[in-house]
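Thread: Newbie trying to understand structure tokens

Hi all, I'm a second-year student working on a class project, and my supervisor (Dr. K.) asked me to get a predicted structure for one chain before our next meeting. I've only ever worked with sequences, so writing a 3D structure as a token string is new to me. If someone could post the tokens and maybe explain what I'm looking at, I'd be very grateful. Here's the chain:
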Amino acid sequence: MLTYNWQKSSFSGNAGNCVYVATGEHHTVRLRESDEPEVVLATTPATFGGFIRAVKAGAFDRLTAG
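---
Reply by user tm_fold:
Sure, no problem. This is what the structure looks like when written as tokens:
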């Protein structure tokens, strides 16, 4: 079993709901959320970078929970 060096998002602060990111094998980026740390999403650095750029640009600002 691999162990990842998880880093907490700087926007999480001391809140209970934190997002963590780590690099994985085969040049992947791993993401998890503190409420369900056993659920891990994996993506490529390029896709993750595109997601971060879209978030910073406000592409998801008007989304609401359904």
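A couple of things are worth pointing out once you decode it. DSSP finds one helix and four strands in the chain. The first strand starts at residue 7 and ends at 8. Feel free to ask follow-ups in this thread.
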